[in-house]
Amino acid sequence: MRILIVEDDRDINRQLFDALTQAGYVVDKAFDGAEGQFLGETEPYDAIVLDMGLPTVDGIAVLQAWRAAGRTMPVLILTARDRWSDKVQGFDAGADDYVAKPFHMEEVLARVRALLRRAAGHATSELSCGPVRLDTRSGRVVVDGAAVKLTSHEYRLLAYLMHHTGRVISRSELVEHLYDQDFDRDSNTIEVFVGRLRRKLGVDVIQTVRGLGYLLQPPDAA
Q: Which of 48, 84, 108, 200 is deepest in the core (most CB within 10 A)?
């Protein structure tokens, strides 16, 4: 899952980047409103953490521009403004959730997980597909009750597929959502990781749909 942080305070930006990266997300960063607005309009983020008090373009204006352009990704407002009227302004502009500074990083992570979960139509933090279970809180993956050890790339791939169980996901969509802007998008990395993931899971849940991409579904639904 790919996240954008738009925060002008470099220390906070770095702390968020480190925490989200350690949680298994691919993270891009912006430090002002103009850069953040451009990235949000041109890159397919799964969620965005957006500060309200940004240089060049205010966070509210950035959010309004995204929504006016038809961008529907979940947005978590992060700001030092904690008056109820500021919260109302943020929600009316199109925010999905709100955290006031100073904040506990675990709360931000929990809210990001919740936004991603709700956007994909899941009610709990544990995602399942047949015998495969993935806990988005701990990053733990089990198959038939047995833990499976995955690399960070394999985990990102499985997490994205499990957030979108039952939908065909193209290779290009996987690349856009699992890797940052500097990733070599002409490589065959996705195919390699799909093969490794299939072997580690040991169950037939990842189907190849010829010419279209990959489909995650329970074995008995194939």
A: 48
